[in-house]
């Protein structure tokens, strides 16, 4: 109990170093994902290079689930008090402003890139639709809206109640999405969709899972099986998506989506490993400062990395400028580094920095 209280007090400060490291890894995985996705739909699935592209794409899908699990572990902490005023005027409002600002930036970039006239209808469409990766801001704002309800329930719920919720999430979200990806029979889709339990579906499941692992833990007898499952899920994600794509004669990524069983296992294993193992590592003061600086820049990196992937692409600097097995990580590292520098500078602008990244 004393260990749990200490852990909760540390979480309340929001500066768990292993979460900072995990956040950096998750952010880089998203940059890698979009670097790999540049030509995922373009290269024929029968081309050996597509297998390389798909392999990178399949391996790094854990980024968003891990981001959400970290948020759940921190925001659902019983000692972290969040008033309605702070929830709406700080957390949710910030997500809305970030979404509008970056939707506008990407819209103006598109107008410049494609020589499109900047009209009110174009700007309005960009503000509403946004760039495809900005869906994360809408999703996390939706979870924030539920925070007072979910937190009240978790404070009063027993461990078995939380486990029941997570079992339903694994059956009706992870299990259902995996079945949809593998089995295309109409009757199977009908059966899997016949029970509508929206509360246990979506990223809220990952949000609660992050809380559960940190505050209750998973029995050590299961750790080796979870780690083994996570390791084996890497080749399973690669080969499974490859087989489904060749069968369809087109790129198919449903299996390694955020709720595919293999991505779920990889995300679970990573989060457990960082929580149970990496959290015990001690770092020098200099290394700690670097880790925290990188972690603080991850939101900005996430928001702007696509801009630079596309901008670099217009000048021939893309993931296929050299063989993809090298080109994808080179592009990802370059974008990550540039975005980190810009994010670190912009965040320090008084008053407006936090609403830009």
Number of strands: 0
Globular, elongated, flat, extended or rod-shaped: what is the shape?
globular
Mean pLDDT: 88
Provide the β-strand percentage band.
under 5%
- Oligomeric description of these chains: single chain
Uncertain stretches of 5 or more adjacent residues: 1-14
State the helicity in percent bands: over 70%
Q: How would you characterize the largest beta sheet?
A: none
Count of helix runs? 15
List keywords for this structure.
single chain; 357 residues; mainly alpha; 15 helices; 72% helix; disordered N terminus
Give an account of the 3D structure.
The structure is a single chain. With 357 residues, this protein is mostly helical. It is built from 15 helices and no strands. Helix 2 (17-36) packs antiparallel against helix 4, helix 8 crosses helix 10 and helix 14 packs across helix 15 (324-346). The longest helix is centred in the N-terminal third of the chain and has 30 residues, at 84-113. The chain is globular.
Summarize the structure.
This protein has helices at residues 2-12, 17-36, 48-59, 63-75, 84-113, 120-129, 135-156, 159-182, 186-193, 204-215, 223-248, 261-276, 285-296, 298-314, 324-346.
Element layout with pairings:
Layout: H1 2-12, H2 17-36, H3 48-59, H4 63-75, H5 84-113, H6 120-129, H7 135-156, H8 159-182, H9 186-193, H10 204-215, H11 223-248, H12 261-276, H13 285-296, H14 298-314, H15 324-346
Helix pairs in contact: 2-3, 2-4, 2-12, 2-13, 2-14, 2-15, 3-11, 4-10, 4-12, 5-6, 5-7, 8-9, 8-10, 11-12, 14-15
């Amino acid at each position: 109990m004393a260990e749990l209280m200490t852990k909760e007090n540390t979480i309340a400060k929001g500066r768990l170093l292993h979460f900072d490291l995990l956040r950096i890894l998750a952010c880089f995985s998203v940059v890698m994902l979009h670097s790999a996705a540049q030509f995922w739909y373009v290269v024929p699935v029968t081309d050996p290079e597509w297998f390389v592209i798909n392999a990178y794409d399949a391996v790094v899908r854990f980024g968003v689930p891990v981001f959400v699990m970290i948020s759940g572990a921190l925001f659902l902490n019983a000692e972290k008090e969040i008033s309605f005023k702070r929830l709406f005027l700080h957390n949710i409002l910030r997500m809305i402003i970030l979404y509008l600002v970056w939707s506008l930036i990407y819209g103006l970039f598109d107008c410049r890139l494609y020589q499109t006239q900047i009209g009110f209808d174009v700007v309005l469409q960009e503000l509403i639709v946004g760039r495809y990766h900005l869906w994360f801001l809408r999703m996390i704002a939706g979870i924030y809206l539920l925070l007072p309800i979910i937190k009240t329930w978790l404070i009063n719920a027993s461990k078995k109640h939380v486990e029941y919720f997570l079992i339903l999430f694994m059956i009706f979200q992870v299990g259902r999405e995996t079945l949809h990806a593998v089995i295309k029979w109409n009757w199977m889709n009908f059966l899997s969709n016949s029970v509508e339990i929206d509360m246990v579906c979506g990223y809220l499941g990952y949000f609660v899972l992050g809380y559960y692992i940190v505050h209750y833990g998973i029995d050590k007898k299961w750790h080796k099986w979870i780690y083994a499952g996570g390791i084996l899920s890497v080749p399973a994600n690669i080969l499974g998506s490859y087989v489904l794509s060749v069968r369809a004669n087109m790129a198919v990524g449903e299996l390694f989506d955020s709720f595919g069983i293999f991505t779920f296992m990889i995300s679970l294993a990573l989060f457990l490993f960082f929580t149970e193992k990496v959290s015990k590592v001690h770092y020098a003061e200099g290394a700690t400062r670097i880790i925290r600086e990188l972690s603080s820049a991850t939101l900005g990196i996430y928001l702007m990395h696509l801009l630079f992937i596309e901008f670099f692409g217009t000048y021939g600097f893309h993931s296929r400028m050299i063989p993809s097995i090298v080109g994808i990580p080179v592009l990802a590292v370059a974008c990550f580094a540039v975005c980190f520098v810009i994010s670190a500078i912009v965040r320090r602008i008084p008053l407006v920095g936090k609403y830009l990244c």
